[in-house]
Amino acid sequence: MNVLLTGAYGRCGTAIIDHLHDDSGYEFTYLDREEPDENGEYGEYETIVADVADSHAVRDAAADQDAMIHLAGYPFTDGTWDDVHQPNIIGTLNALEAAREAELETVVFASSNHVMGMYESENAPELYFGTESSFRLSHEDPVRPDSYYGVSKSFGEDLCRYYVENYEYPKRAHAIRICSLRMPEYDHPYGDAEHDVDDGEYERDSDEYAQQVARMKAMWQSRRDFAHMIDRCLRTDDERFEIFSGVSDNDRRWYSIEHARDTIGYEPRDNGEEWDSPPE
Asked: What is the pLDDT of residues 46-85, one digit of tens each?
């Protein structure tokens, strides 16, 4: 299967490269706004350097592909409408239009937990502690974005549904509401807290550290679980639009993974509760 991966060298894209690049079932084409450092970990990979807001570039990159994983976009919740408009609104439209014109079978879209972020905002920090959440959010619950970024991802989900239900291609689109996925150094439920300690924001024995760990034990999706979810999305034959929660099998998670289990056979290997300290 020929797969175009946009936003290839961010946190999510590199997880796919790390775990799926050598899979004989896939031939990836990587697109990013910048070339990877030629002396870095991903410097060996040929890259299409382009902005997804450039419709012609995305259309050219989609030619001769079978599927697209669309990760490229503005990723910060404190962004303005101007920040998200071109990369997240226009860029997603360009990606789906390119998929339609190139007759791609499958699109996987990087959505975000921030589509549902107000549920967390109203229930934090109590939500982070304890092994059972007071609720579990699923694809059937109303969206409640917490930012322009969340709104842009909600728009992307709706656009995916529109294309699948109104055009012959793409045949299927899957939106993954990614929770908390990190680069390899911080790929564990202590990752955000350790990152903040490294940045000098607080100490390891602080309340802030404990709260950040508690949140990540609920929200963490390991890089290998994310790549596994992508793999399952690419391999399904269902011709429809679906929404999945991008999270590992954490005891205290408040995002349900049952729909992904039942629909695409998602079987995460990791659980934040199995960690009682950061890696040495």
From this structure: 999 999 999 999 999 999 999 999 999 999 999 999 999 9
Backbone angles phi, psi at 197, to 5 degrees: -65, -45
Task: Give the torsion through C-alpha atoms of 210, 208, 219, 135, to 10 deg.
Answer: 90
Write out the H or E segment, with its range, that includes residue 173: strand 172-178
220 Rama class: left (phi>0) / alpha (psi -120 to 50) / beta:
beta
Q: 139-170 b/e with 16+ CB inside 10 Å = b?
A: beeebbbbbbbbbbbbbbbebbbebbeeeebb
The residues that are catalytic are: 149
Tell me the backbone φ, ψ of residue 176, rounded to 5 degrees.
-105, 115
Whether domain 2-274 has CATH 3.40.50.2300: the reply is no
Residue 218 belongs to what H/E stretch? Answer: helix 207-219
255: its two tokens: 């995002």
Whole-model pTM: value is: 0.97
CA distance 176 to 227: 12
Name the pairing type of β-strands 241-246 and 172-178.
Answer: parallel
CA distance 58 to 242: 23
